[in-house]
Amino acid sequence: MKIKRTKQRKNPTAVDTLRSADRDLTVRSYQVRADTLNEKERSIEAVIATEAPVLALDLRSWRVVEEILLMDGVILPKSRQVPLLDTHDRSTVQKIAGSTRDIRVDADKLVGKNVYSESGSGATAFQLTREGHLTDNSIGYRVLNYTTIEPGKSGIISGRTFKASKTRALRVSTAWEVKENSICPIGADNSAKNRSDETAEISHKRSLLFREFRTMDFEKWLQKRGLKLEDLTDDQASALRADYDAEITRAAAEKAKPKPASAAEPDETTKQRMLDAGAEAERKRQADIRKMGDIPGLPSEIVERCIKDGNSVQEAQAVLYETMKGQQLRAAKLNIQVGVVRDVKVDAKMLEAGLLVRAGYGDFIVKDPDYGEQIVNDADKNFRDTTMRGLCEDAIALEGKVVPRSTMDLIRTAFSTLSLTNILGNVANKSMMRGYNYAPQTWRQWCNVGSASDFKTMTRARLTDTGELEEVGNSGEVPHGGATEEYEQYNIATYAKQFAITRTNIINDDLGALTRTPERMGRKANQKTSKLVYTHLLANGAMSDTVALFHADHSNLNTSSALAAATLAAAVAAFRNQVDSDKEPLDIPPAILLVPPSLENTAKGLATSELLLLAYGGSTASTVKAPAKNVFKDLALTVVVEPRLENSAYTGYSATTWYVTASPSQGDTIEVAFLNGRSSPIIERFVSDINTLGIGYRVLMDVGCKSLDSRTMQQNTA
Fold first, then answer.
1. pLDDT-derived band at 381, boundaries 50, 70, 90
2. Element (H or E) spanning 526, and its range?
3. pLDDT tens digit string along 498-537?
4. For 502, phi and psi rounded to 5 degrees?
5. Angle ∠(448,705,105) on CA atoms, nearest 5
6. Which of 352, 378, 489, 590 is the most exposed place for a label (fewest CB within 10 A)?
């Protein structure tokens, strides 16, 4: 029987202009560009949605409103992947063009990667996209909670002020979930476009950095060297600005020196000696420049022009280096000594691999896509013995500069190159990640992972439907339902340490300062997140209802419950009996048995054994034990062992307390959020103090955590 609508549309003309109005999803579109099209992966990165206002249909009031999707309210699928459809057609799998993957929040944007299938509509869509005919995509999403601001009014939502236009209401969606993405012919959200190679966060940092560095004199200084500020990374801009400032300081010091008194006119013998020395210097200049020109494919007229124009050897090296780059010849063919050509292939990646092999990280990087087995083998054969001083020499040669003879000048020149900066930074980063990945983080097995766009207090909302479905009477009128909102609030913070590679490290050939130090910091970053999670769990802090996480009022605290078959059965039963605000079962099964090391054997015995030994008999004296089927094995509980639970350094520790939790894919437990979803630590270069001869680095990570739902966790104390 078809239900008849009892309420007329207020604005059918406006409604007819919006697509998918009668569907259960809302859609908004964006235009695409081909600037990140990847032929090999058959993919393209895209900005799927932004916080820009877009017209949408409010099905409750049946009117067209402007809608803003708050990025801190987006609910992403656990897999961070949704289907890529043909114009929102969900009727058949033949309309699936591929999938949108790696969906994440990046500042005020939602971004992802469209990956096209090789068959059906995916092949057609990718071909049209490649040829530039298909330019628009559209996201499909479901709004779970929102606040409406009437035309001309203002409102404060999630700590931010919003104002509606004079002609339309503004709907600010504070909770919404991504359901699908589609290929479609028409776009709407002009701010949401195909993503360029640079994220909004990096663009913002670069704009602040360049605003600080941008001066007319500095930009002219860069132009003389064939560089533009806009083309530099933030590390490169920082390093070059430091060089510029040092050069200005030296020039000012030279200018301030008193001028020497004019010398007496030299005699004829002295003049002749000076002329002879000048002629010899000129012959050597020309010979050295011609030696540098002995590179296959390098035009001889370039060399002769450098000689004719009176270029110094250093200036000629720069000219020849730029010419080689234009012809895709390797700058490494310029040797450390002027005029000698290297026979061994040298580039930054090979030097990095050589240092990592020397540090004993060969097995770690052999599967790294940045290197691979071939590069690691070549580095092991040719560059295992690279010293820190040798690295400085190679870095200078890679940029076509003359390698100074004195150690001080060598180190000072090397520290001013981008090559050395990048090589040291990459080696330190690989070392840090080796330390970060040294041990598994047990919290990942039972905690949710979230993303934060900034350091402001976040609100994580849970919507709970109220009222069951009711029978529709003869009138055809469908009763209205409702929802109650439950929420938790928290924020993330930054945790960091710094280190430096100094002149002393180079002279002492101290490779450990470049590898072991960041490796230890990576380990500390790994441990920091674990410490935050288990400190929070053991603290048993209050939820938004002012009641402790584990409390009798939450029906999740079981006392006098040492881990055994009977107490595990009771905990599982209490878990299954949890209800929502409408007193209906949650229907979320228990999945994790979280225990301290002292309970590891007991937990694994209960969770994985085929049989349990049960007692029977008429009296204590005659009681014997017989095997019985272990019913707990059917639960397929994953045993997670965490030493911090019984570590005396943690407040609330216990060797006998254990927990039963849901799987993070099925329910909210404790959420661990990272800035822009980046869960690994970051290593950054910074400009050292002017009195420090070296390069500074800092390891940092932005993270925070909070328990989101008391009903998905059971605490059991002995």
1. confident
2. helix 512-539
3. 888 888 888 898 888 888 999 999 999 999 999 999 999 9
4. -110, 175
5. 65
6. 489
The per-residue pLDDT for 569 is 94
For residues 583 and 588, what is the distance between their CA atoms, to the nearest angstrom? Answer: 14
Is residue 481 within 8 A of residue 510, CB to CB? The reply is no
pLDDT at 194: 36
Cα(512)–Cα(504) distance, rounded to whole angstroms? 12
Query: In this predicted model, which residue has the larger pLDDT, 698 or 199?
Result: 698
Name the helix (H) or strand (E) containing 317.
helix 313-326
Whole-number Å distance between alpha carbons of 626 and 609: 14
Which of the residue ranges 190-204, 233-247, 552-566 has the most confident prediction, judged by mean pLDDT? Answer: 552-566
Region 323-342: what's the mean pLDDT?
A: 40
- pLDDT confidence tier of residue 604, bands split at 50, 70 and 90: very high
> Measuring CA to CA, which residue among 543, 556, 573, 533 is closest to residue 659?
556
- Contact predicate 377/365, CB 8 Å: no
Cα 716 to Cα 36, 218, 558, 573, distances in angstroms: 52, 65, 5, 13
Could you give the 3-state DSSP secondary structure of residue 645?
helix
Confidence label for 311 from pLDDT (cuts 50, 70 and 90): confident
Q: Give me the domains of the chain, ranges plus CATH numbers.
A: 12-195 (no CATH), 234-250+286-430 (no CATH), 556-615+625-667+708-716 (3.30.2320)
Cβ atoms of 704 and 491 within 8 Å: the answer is: yes
In b/e form, how buried is each residue of 396-425, taking b as 16+ CB within 10 angstroms? Answer: bbbbbbbbbeeeeebbebbbbbbbbbbbbb
- What amino acid occupies position 75? I
State yes or no: pLDDT of 268 exceeds 90.
no
Taking the C-alpha atoms of residue 542 and residue 114, their distance in angstroms, rounded to an integer, is 41
Contact (CB, 8 A) for 598 and 562: no
Tokens coding 406: 């004195």
Q: What local confidence, expressed as pLDDT, does residue 22 receive?
A: 36
573: Cβ contacts below 8 Å, ≥ 6 apart: none
Per-residue pLDDT at 462 exceeds 90: no
- Cα→Cα distances 407→216, 242, 410, 422, 699, Å: 34, 21, 5, 21, 29
Which residues have C-beta within 8 Å of that of residue 412, sequence separation ≥ 6? Answer: 693
DSSP letter assigned to residue 548: B
Which of 50, 29, 53 minimizes the C-alpha distance to 108? 50
pLDDT in tens, 29-61: 665 555 778 888 888 888 888 888 887 766 566
Using CA atoms, how far apart are residues 423 and 506, in angstroms rounded to an integer?
Answer: 14
Residue 83, judged by CB atoms within 10 A of its CB (0-12, 13-18, 19+), counts as middle
With contact defined as beta carbons under 8 Å apart, do 112 and 195 qualify?
no
CB atoms within 10 A of CB 286: 17
